[in-house]
Amino acid sequence: MKINKAFKFRIYPTKGQLTLIHKTFGCVRFTYNHFLNKRIELYRNEKKSTTYVNQAKELTSLKKDLICLKEVDSVSP
To answer: Which band of pLDDT confidence, cut at 50, 70 and 90, is reported for residue 76?
Structure first.
């Protein structure tokens, strides 16, 4: 017999941590939507798809241009 367990944790972040969480979610949302739009436009115009490698290279250059992506953890965006 298989038993599933679940744990719920509640966090109480400080104001500084809450600000960082909001910035991180905003950057993740921006990055996802940016690359989704680029994939859609590329497929719509050229009927081609892009690769992860190309997007990773573009993300590196995007981080240099946008200050908000430098402020958050590098793993999230």
So the answer is: low
CB atoms within 10 A of CB 28: 13
Residue 48 lies in a domain: yes
How far is Cα 70 from Cα 11, in angstroms, rounded to an integer?
25
What is the pTM for the complete model shown? 0.77
Would residue 7 count as lying in a domain? Answer: no
Measured in residues, the chain has a length of 77
- 52-72 in b/e form (b: 16+ CB < 10 A) is eeebeeeeeebbeeeeebeeb
State how many domains the chain has. Answer: 1
| Boundaries of domain holding 61 | 15-71
Residue 28 DSSP SS3: helix
| Pair of tokens at residue 24 | 């991180």
Q: Note whether residue 35 is domain-resident.
A: yes
